[in-house]
Amino acid sequence: MANIHHFKEISTNKINEHHMNPSTNKENAVTIIGLGPMGQAMATVYLNKGYRVTVWNRTASRADGLVEKGAVKASTVADALRASELVILSLTDYEAMYPIFAGSEDALANRLIVNLSSDTPDKTREAAAWLKSHGAELLVGGVMVPAELVGKEGAYVFYSGQKTVFETHEATLRLIGKPDYVGEDPGLAQLYYQAQLDIFLTSLAAYLHATALVGSAGVSAKTFLPYAIETFDSLSVIGGLAEAADHIDAGKYPGEMANVIMMGATADHIVGASRAVGINSRLPEAVKALYDRTIATGHGKDGWPSLFEAIKKNS
Q: Which is it for strands 29-33 and 72-73: parallel, antiparallel or unpaired?
């Protein structure tokens, strides 16, 4: 591999020389477009593994630190695309991809675009079709750790798209996190990603609401913390998630131990307590509304997993 540590920037001609040089190991080359914290972290991982890393960012100065580490700063998006067959995007959303690639569509031919940006499944499917029309393949990804954990133990990434393409580049993708391929449909990785964040964000909001609830009586967050941790740690056991999954798939919700009416009463009490102490009650109100809807549809004496029936229908 050529020594690139002395280069601050590379011209179009030199990028093409790298790209066309038979001695260049294309499996050890990657382009990263978008140098926020996640893009920076991925570029650093690949540099540390000896990869030839080409970077591009709309604010070019964000690449300077990576150039000092050995990255090649492409002067244009087309140069960045030509530098590597594997191109990773780390952007705010999928809409950001189109203006970046505008005018450089010809350089997309025969490229694998691994888009690790967050968006809706439909947006990813639209992007797959658009890239295909320009000769590129899309592999959708969802990174399930913060930037500081990229490439470290426990990091994992959901992927969906053409399986053969995924398998071709799996070894390279594994360096930033354990790859979890979930299917050919480009939208699947986004669904898994958003579903995990659904649990995460809602749980964090519930913790903050609960802390505010006890805090209304002067209880400090630190005092309440051990109880919150105990609840989170025991949810998979007490909540019976494995059993709930079986019930959801079977469409049967036995409620001998604790039914929706009983738990709905508790949800109502949380709303009442929140209002009484003057804290924001919208989160528990949303939960109570699910219980109310589930009872109204005849599942009052079923177990709590029957809320799934109210959730899966937008009515």
A: unpaired
Q: Is the pLDDT of residue 207 over 90?
A: yes
**Residue that is written with structure tokens 């970046």 in the block:** 100
Beta bridge partners, 137, equal 112
What does the alpha-carbon distance between residue 176 and residue 66 come to, in Å, rounded to a whole number? Answer: 16
Is there a contact between 1 and 52 (Cβ–Cβ < 8 Å)? yes
C-alpha 198 chain-centroid distance: 11
> What pTM was estimated for this model as a whole?
0.82
User: Could you tell me how far CA 65 lies from the centroid of its own chain?
Assistant: 25
Position 228 pLDDT exceeds 80: yes
Neighbour tally for 149: CB within 10 Å: 15
CA distance 252 to 117: 37
Check pLDDT > 70 for residue 135. yes
CA–CA distance, 96 with 106 (Å, rounded to integer): 18
Q: Buried (b) or exposed (e) across 251-276, using 16+ Cβ within 10 A?
A: eebebeeebbeebbeebbebbeebee
DSSP track, 65-99: HHHHHT-EEBSSHHHHHHH-SEEEE--SSSTTHHH
- Predicted confidence at residue 259, as pLDDT, reads 92
